User: Which sequence fits this backbone?
């Protein structure tokens, strides 16, 4: 076996009240894709951050190519040949795509930036990832998934010996994931060591050669992927057998009831579409990145304004001008964009959790503290949010646990229509099953759900019917009967509904 | 509470310094049924600054800033004095109340204007309020016709210079405002909503918070606080000076807020911290006089002390100083710091 390029031994890291890492050993070999596995909050991102100098370590040592290192910050790590995409995409949204890719290492001539070359090289780079976008537009112009791709493009362009990708695929569709894996394989052949984090087990088995499993900040072990069956992997991650992983029962047909939401030729940043959602019905939205799924959600929530068409909610014709207006009609929307549109980082878990409820009640009617504590305790338990300390600042939670808090923010409202945009993004296998079960329970109780996910599997498992989008146009509406499979869905997406 | 430990400690230290230079500094006595003493004076003279800083705290918590408070101070003082000077009897309580009402109404209207520019038009707060900061001085001079209006009204004098129940009336006003604010922001939910908008405006909007209305209310309230402070200042000297009343008070107020632990980046705010911050600045002014710093160096001296205070307040600075003392460990980025990926 080749000499390890990276060796971490006995790594310990403690945050106030939380032991995030406890004596963790980790080895990364050149030319391998190594998966770092573990539940939400297991310490994966923390291990990456202590490696790249974002945090200091309390104990242990790090060796890069045989030399002991302790980086003062990400920049230094990058100079030493470690290129990293962090879990929370951290680019400058107001700068152009090209500037983001080359920031800090702009091609220069006599000190002046060569803008043309920068744009050309970025375009070429993104074409490798099959992403033909205008690189002179600001990054904020593009969806989260594209932003994630740009971050990846930036990382692979940097000349590195070690490439670290912390949940790079969390909001990508199958197509982009395939592109990414193609690039990863190519880099691997060049002898680059790749550290990869993902909660999608299929992806792990497809791309990873070996894996290291963490649980509660401790090392469980190091395994060769091919020798560790999926069931055992899950068992090692969560420390028990996972029964819920089985498919949910076939969904019973939604109760035939009055339509709750009727959109007729509703249009805005999507082509006019018509869609009906009944009480107790789960409608899935499927489509590729940028196909307009989020735009439909935002229209129904009043976050964007409709340019045409009519919308009826509960029989009344409505014009939604603000999210607040939609909430008053019983609509809730959990955004896919956790950092920009969800978290209030400086507030506690409790405050983030009750935020929408408090906003609905207004400033003069505070949610009584006892009620808050009850609600918060209930959802921390139901969604297994960890650590279970409601007074912790939410920014100190792991990505998956933050997501759970945001989900709870909307569940608390007991809406009539719950719009979930990538609700299981970055959530571990155990919690994902719990959340899917919850969606089924809620819809059985009469709640209508609009479910958006890049994972077709998940869409199929939960939805009564699936609306397919392509190029910002709703192209097909398919009842979820026995004949509907992920393949059929893929085909419909690809063909744009044309038979 | 822990967050208030540093400003409280600094204030205590400053007060102790005064004890060295001024005998009986901590002595408080009752003369003619009024409380007297250096400590009382710090409160009394600091009252306008505390008020302005309290209003500023809420604005800063929304990730804004209000540079126009000094002008509002001047405008309200001028307006009130102008109205009173036209009364047939300047001691008529009704007339004085009317004048106060007009002046404060004007302040609120100006604040609503600020809020409108920030929330609806979408101008950056620093620019939006800069407009009134500059134009407001002109407006104040227009009201006073470029002169200093002098009045002689006993009821009006009460606001800034009078006593009630042995206490200076201005301290009572501050206490009432503080209590009201604490109630509305902490017992009711306004504080959470403000902190949420300051922490992440878009997430707040998507959570159903009426952030536009909230911003307007906050700017209006800030202007109202500045208005009351303007009444105090002009009442204390029984005159209105459109040029100099409240000059630079916005800077002291912002400083007080920051020393009190509220971040200019918005989000969490602390009313108690702001009061301590304002008292620190007021005490510093007193100290400068009592230890006899030469007048030409007072500004430098003040800047020096403020710099030290701010450094001590900064967790990043403290972490660095204390860590490098403990062990010359590999340099690190403080845990809370944001990670920016840059080459
Ligand atoms: N800055 C911080 N302050 C306090 N606690 C923290 C901080 N950063 C992380 N933690 C805690 O450390 C633990 C590990 O978090 P980490 O982000 O490494 O988890 P993760 O394995 O990446 O999870 P996920 O799959 O959800 O991304 C969590 O309990 C988290 O709450
Ligand atoms: Mg993570």
Assistant:
């Amino acid at each position: 076996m080749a000499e390890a390029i990276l060796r971490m031994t006995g790594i310990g890291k403690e945050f106030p009240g939380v032991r995030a890492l406890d004596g963790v050993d980790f080895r990364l070999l050149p030319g391998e894709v190594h998966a770092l596995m573990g539940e939400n909050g297991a310490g994966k991102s923390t291990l990456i951050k202590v490696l790249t100098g974002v945090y200091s370590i309390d104990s242990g040592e790090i060796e890069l190519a045989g030399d002991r290192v302790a980086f003062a910050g990400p920049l230094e790590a990058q100079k030493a040949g470690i290129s990293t995409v962090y879990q929370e995409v951290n680019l400058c949204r107001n700068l152009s795509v090209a500037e983001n890719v080359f920031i800090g290492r702009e091609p220069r001539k006599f000190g002046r930036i060569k803008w043309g070359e920068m744009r050309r090289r970025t375009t070429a780079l993104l074409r490798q990832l099959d992403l033909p976008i205008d690189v002179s537009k600001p990054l904020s112009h593009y969806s989260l998934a594209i932003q994630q791709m740009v971050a990846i493009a930036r990382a692979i362009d940097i000349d590195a010996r070690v490439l670290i990708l912390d949940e790079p695929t969390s909001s990508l569709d199958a197509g982009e994931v395939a592109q990414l894996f193609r690039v990863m394989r190519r880099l691997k052949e060049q002898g680059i060591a790749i550290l990869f984090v993902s909660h999608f087990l299929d992806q792990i088995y497809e791309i990873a050669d070996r894996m290291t499993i963490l649980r509660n900040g401790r090392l469980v072990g190091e395994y060769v992927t091919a020798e560790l069956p999926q069931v055992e992997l899950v068992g090692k991650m969560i420390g028990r057998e996972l029964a819920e992983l089985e498919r949910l029962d076939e969904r019973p047909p939604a109760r035939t009831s009055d339509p709750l939401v009727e959109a007729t030729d509703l249009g805005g940043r999507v082509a006019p579409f018509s869609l009906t959602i009944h009480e107790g019905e789960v409608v899935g939205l499927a489509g590729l990145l940028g196909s307009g799924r989020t735009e439909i959600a935002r229209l129904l929530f009043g976050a964007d304004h409709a340019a045409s068409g009519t919308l009826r909610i509960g029989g009344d014709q409505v014009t939604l001008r603000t999210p607040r207006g939609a909430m008053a009609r019983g609509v809730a929307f959990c955004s896919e964009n956790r950092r920009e549109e969800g978290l209030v980082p400086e507030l506690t878990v409790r405050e983030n959790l009750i935020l929408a409820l408090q906003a609905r009640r207004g400033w003069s009617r505070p949610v009584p503290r006892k009620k808050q504590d009850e609600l918060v305790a209930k959802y921390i338990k139901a969604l297994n949010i960890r650590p279970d300390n409601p007074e912790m600042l939410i920014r100190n939670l792991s990505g998956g646990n933050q997501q759970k808090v945001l989900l709870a923010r909307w569940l608390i409202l007991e809406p009539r229509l719950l719009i979930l945009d990538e609700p299981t993004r970055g959530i571990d296998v155990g919690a994902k099953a719990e959340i899917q079960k919850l969606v089924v329970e809620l819809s059985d109780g009469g709640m209508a759900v609009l479910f958006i996910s890049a994972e077709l599997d998940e869409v199929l498992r939960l939805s009564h019917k699936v609306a397919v989008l392509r190029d910002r146009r709703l192209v097909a509406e398919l009842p979820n009967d026995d004949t509907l499979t992920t393949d059929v869905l893929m085909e419909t997406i690809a063909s744009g509904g044309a038979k | 509470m822990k967050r208030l430990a540093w400003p409280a400690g600094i204030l205590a230290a400053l007060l102790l310094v005064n004890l060295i230079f001024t005998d009986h500094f901590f002595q408080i006595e009752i003369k003619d049924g009024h409380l007297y003493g250096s400590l009382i004076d710090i409160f009394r003279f600091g009252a306008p600054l505390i008020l302005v800083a309290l209003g500023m705290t809420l604005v800063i918590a929304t990730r804004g800033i209000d540079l126009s408070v000094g002008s509002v101070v001047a405008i309200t003082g001028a307006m009130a004095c102008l109205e009173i000077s036209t009364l047939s009897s300047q001691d008529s309580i009704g007339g004085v109340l009317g004048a106060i009402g007009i002046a404060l109404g004007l302040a609120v209207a100006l604040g609503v204007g600020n809020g409108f520019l920030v929330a609806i038009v979408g101008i950056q707060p620093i620019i939006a309020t800069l407009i009134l900061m500059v134009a407001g001085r002109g407006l104040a001079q227009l009201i006073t016709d470029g002169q200093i209006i002098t009045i002689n009204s006993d009821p009006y004098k009460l606001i800034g210079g009078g006593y009630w129940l042995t206490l200076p009336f201005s301290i009572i006003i501050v206490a009432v405002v503080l209590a009201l604010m604490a109630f509305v922001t902490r017992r009711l939910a306004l504080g959470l909503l403000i902190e949420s908008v300051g922490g992440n405006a878009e997430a707040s909007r998507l959570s159903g918070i009426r952030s536009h209305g909230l911003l307007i209310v906050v700017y209006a309230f800030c202007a109202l606080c500045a208005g009351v402070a303007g009444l105090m200042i002009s009442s204390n000297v029984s005159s209105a000076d459109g040029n100099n009343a409240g000059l630079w008070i916005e800077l002291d107020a912002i400083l007080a807020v920051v020393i009190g632990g509220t971040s200019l980046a918005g989000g969490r705010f602390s009313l108690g911290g702001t009061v301590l911050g304002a008292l620190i600045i007021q005490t510093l002014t007193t100290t400068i006089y009592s230890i006899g710093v030469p007048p030409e160096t007072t500004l430098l001296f003040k800047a020096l002390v403020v710099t030290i205070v701010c450094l001590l307040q900064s967790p990043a600075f403290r972490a660095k100083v204390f860590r490098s003392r403990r062990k010359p460990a590999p340099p690190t980025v403080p845990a809370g710091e944001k990670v920016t990926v840059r080459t």
About this structure: Chain B has a mean pLDDT of 87.
